[in-house]
Amino acid sequence: MIRLSGAFRFAEPRDRAIRHRQHGVPHSQFAWVEPPRNALVVKKPNDKNTTTALVRVVDMLVKQNVTPWVEPAVHWETSVGRTWSLDDDPRLDKTIDFIVCLGGDGTILWVSNLFPKAVPPVISFAMGSLGFLTAFEEESIPRAVGDVVRGDFFFTPRSRLAAHVVDARGVEEKRTYVCLNEVVIDRGASAALVDLDVNIDGSPMTKVLADGVMISTPTGSTAYSLAAGGSMVHPGVSGVLFVPICPHTLSFRPLVLPDTSVLTVRVPESARVEPVASFDGKRQRTLRRGESLVIALTSSLIASVKLNAGYVVVQNLIVIICEYLQNEFASVMAFLMATFLAGVLPTALTDAVTTGVTNLLLPKLTTALTGPVMGYHYCVYCYYYGDFCQSCFWNNDLTWMDRDWWLSPQQETYT
């Protein structure tokens, strides 16, 4: 918009193109404004391995001048770290700088429950029965915790849902339910189908007649939502999933809605069943006839600490070299390059190079030095192994060349 002689006029781009800035962010780099002073260590309950690891993490944090905090029950069990009183509102988001999570995905959901408002960065270690959201193994605790204290890490922002109940008179309840995975509204213990009216942004959307309905985040798209037939959505995609559970009509399919959507699920007065709303599978609330549940994305994200981007790049580089350069000579070159990288890269990246060399390059290098028993050939267009490539054959691009450049003259070669 520009101003001309006291009046305002909207100016169009020269090429008359509509531009849009993508809002989805797969990962971001983090930096501390001030060194972290307090860290909360959360562990899987009733587990000896996580208890032992918690004591180790507390010692590491103390040595790095970070005050460790633990939950009251854990403090009573281990007598380590600082804690708070159950009778007080600790306002942990005002005190804690980052969170160390020792357990599985359920432990991360519990961390989300502890922080209904702002959430500090969460670094999680796979020490539970399910580790889909846990980015680090137990063996990497010293290095990973050190990187977080120094501020040398990347994180994936994971959106959360906020839901509250509105009664039949239109009065909103004060309690807000915050969920990392999903909000499920189902028939509970009843055998009858639920009857629900769903509005989106104040406009009627659909009438649900099913076992239930689910509103999920992209993080929760690989949990209950996936089992119910929903789509898998990357956590960097900002959106809301609307997934029916065993719908009465086959045309009722899962939807992906914009991140600005506000969903209102109302139980009509004529409903046969009073459904039960569950939040991340931990808290439940029965919805009476005439009540509504309002659900939307909240602005308080969870910053899930991930592997260093350089670390991932080196690992992917080695995989690409081994998988797409389909000959042993390239593997020899890759081995030499990886050896060079291991000497010049920082310590945090050396592990990636070492892992790639050991698991991917050395087997190919051994084959290159010893030589194969039989000669193999590949299609120069798609690198397909075998006698012929059917795809290129039907496209009249059947061209062959010798794959093993050290073969003896007696071995057959196609050209």
Task: List its salient traits.
415 residues, 29% strand, alpha+beta, single chain, four-stranded parallel sheet, disordered N terminus, twelve-stranded antiparallel sheet
Write a brief structural summary:
With 415 residues, the chain is α+β, with helices and mostly antiparallel strands. The protein has 9 helices and 20 strands.
What structural class do helix, strand and pairing data support? alpha+beta
Q: How large a portion of the residues is in β-strands, by DSSP E?
A: 25-35%
Number of strands: 20
Q: Determine the number of helices (DSSP H or I, runs of at least 4 residues).
A: 9
Rg from C-alpha positions?
A: 28 Å
Distance between the termini: 65 Å
H and E string = EEEEHEHEHEHEEEEEHEEEEEEHHHEHE
Shape: elongated
Largest sheet: 12 strands, antiparallel
Low-confidence stretches: 1-5, 324-329, 344-348, 364-415
Fraction of residues in H or I helices: 25-40%
Average pLDDT metric: 76
Note down, in words, how this protein is organized.
- The chain has 415 residues and is α+β, with helices and mostly antiparallel strands.
- It is 26% helix and 29% strand.
- It contains 9 helices and 20 strands.
- Strands 3, 8, 9, 10, 11, 12, 13, 14, 15, 16, 17 and 18 form a 12-stranded antiparallel β-sheet that branches. Strands 5-4-6-7 form a 4-stranded parallel β-sheet, sandwiched between helices.
- The N terminus and C terminus are likely disordered.
